[in-house]
Design goal:
Layout: E1 2-9, E2 12-22, E3 27-30, H1 32-42, E4 46-52, E5 58-64, H2 68-81, H3 95-104, E6 107-113, E7 116-117, E8 123-129, E9 135-144
Length: about 150
Amino acid sequence: MHDTDLRESRGEERMIHKLTLQTSREGFYEITSTVSQVIRASGVTDGICVVYCPHTTAGITINENADPDVVRDMLFALSKTCPERPEFRHIEGNSSAHVKASIIGSSVTVIIENGRLLLGRWQGIYFCEFDGPRTRSYYVKVISSIHPVDC
């Protein structure tokens, strides 16, 4: 599930992790625990984490993870807001997936505090698929805060 690519630049370690996910037709896939594992493995205790989706018919969002009906309701609302329409001209026939992905967005940034994601009690990070089934990838970049050194 994890393909890891660690890069160094100007003496600072930049941690970029490429992850893969197998999706079905349309759905929200909670990836919070996988992102948390990446942060733990990085050893970063204070900083930020960026989760990025490089696809035009999928996205990344943060929302409630306690009640699965929230995800169902979000998918329902998106399908009512962005149905496939005969007026769409994109030849692949997936224009509504492009619109949904643009509404959701391609990335989220989360604060890391004490080695953990600083999320609300009911929040989770979701990979949002609008044009599956596919093998998808997403990236997690962990950036450590720079603390001034006492002189």
